[in-house]
Design goal:
This protein is of the alpha/beta class and 223 residues long. The chain has one domain: TIM Barrel (Alpha-Beta Barrel). The chain has six helices and nine strands. A nine-stranded mixed sheet has the order 3-1-2-4-5-6-7-8-9. The N and C termini lie far apart (38 Å).
């Protein structure tokens, strides 16, 4: 008999969805261990500095079942590093759950099950991980998905705006394209300043703050 598929898990928790077009809704989180990037502003270093705990897909779906009306988010670290994330996503979608996948944009999205809402990062220069981006992933995104830029400076903003114009010229008009989100690193870029830049440039993007950090400041985990 085949062994039950397992994953290395950093934490399981129930909170408010904090940074997507579904922000504000109750959400059950599966945060997987391990990451292939080292972003300068990372707020979840424990996902790769600590080993994580082995959990079966059955155990993880059972945890999600304890929150039957919540959104589900699979995040990390980088969840796509673990191959058994695919049967987990398929099981959750098959159970009728709304599933979000937060991914860093460096690994292919072509195996993500249909129906999963993809929240994909594009790493800006100040992250130090700009060269890791897999731009062909843009072809895997639809109007149900999100494209997130985390910004530390005016240089990051200018770079991100240039990428949108180059790669997604129909953004804001074509409903088949993902929603673009600009989010500031709060200790490096004032939200009001970012808002002013977005308005001045007329960019078809959403400004977003990390809602969970506003609700529970100083809580590094479980939010």
């Amino acid at each position: 008999m085949a062994a039950e598929p397992t994953l290395l898990v950093s934490e399981l928790f129930y909170s408010i969805q904090g940074e997507s077009t579904l922000a504000g809704a109750p959400c059950a989180f599966i945060r997987l261990a391990g990451c292939n990037l080292r972003c300068s502003y990372c707020d979840a270093r424990y996902t790769y500095e600590e080993p994580g705990q082995t959990r079966t897909v059955v155990e993880l779906t059972a945890f999600i079942a304890t929150h039957p009306t919540a959104l589900v988010e699979i995040t990390g670290g980088e969840p796509l590093l673990q191959d058994n994330v695919y049967p987990l996503m398929a099981a959750l979608v098959g159970a009728g759950r709304t599933v979000l996948l937060e991914t860093n944009g460096s690994l292919t999205l072509d195996r993500v099950p249909t129906g999963v809402v993809k929240v994909m990062d594009i790493k800006c220069p100040a992250s130090g991980m700009q060269e890791a981006m897999r731009w062909e992933n843009l072809a895997c995104l639809t109007g149900n998905d999100n494209l997130k830029f985390v910004l530390s400076s005016r240089d990051d903003f200018t770079w991100a705006a240039d990428q949108l114009r180059a790669h997604l010229p129909g953004l804001g008009r074509d409903t088949n394209l993902p929603v673009a989100i600009f989010s500031p690193v709060l200790d490096k870029l004032a939200p009001a300043r970012l808002a002013a830049w977005i308005l001045a440039e007329g960019l078809p993007v959403r400004l977003q703050l990390q809602l969970h950090k506003l609700l529970w400041p100083g809580s590094p985990r479980g939010v």
